[in-house]
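thread: overnight batch results

M.L. [08:02]
morning all. the overnight job finished for the chain we discussed friday. pasting input first so we're all looking at the same thing
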Amino acid sequence: MNLAQIAGQRKHPRVDVSWSVVMLTPEGKMVGKTENISRGGAYIRCSTLLSKNDLFTMTIQAPNRAPLHVGAEVVWVDIPLTPDKKQVPIGMGVRFTDISVDDLQFISNVVSGVTKD
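M.L. [08:03]
and the structure it wrote out:
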């Protein structure tokens, strides 16, 4: 599945952001960046990826705001092949599984343009 197909399946509009994220996984702490976000999930770039269906918690640091604490599940993993046929992990799509009403409202405002990222 390519990124265009995935974008066509999204239920929620997304907005590009570049927010730091710390993921607490069964394998330990991982650090990454959100590349885009919606009410339902985010695309996260990091050097080590989780597997599809993995559950984890994460802390997202949006500018000028207290951190967002979110439960998430990996929905898909973006691992393209380089010209020499090596796999290079670059990101993963995650679905929010546990998010507070306030954090969800903040993300909704960012996506709608009410709050600037």
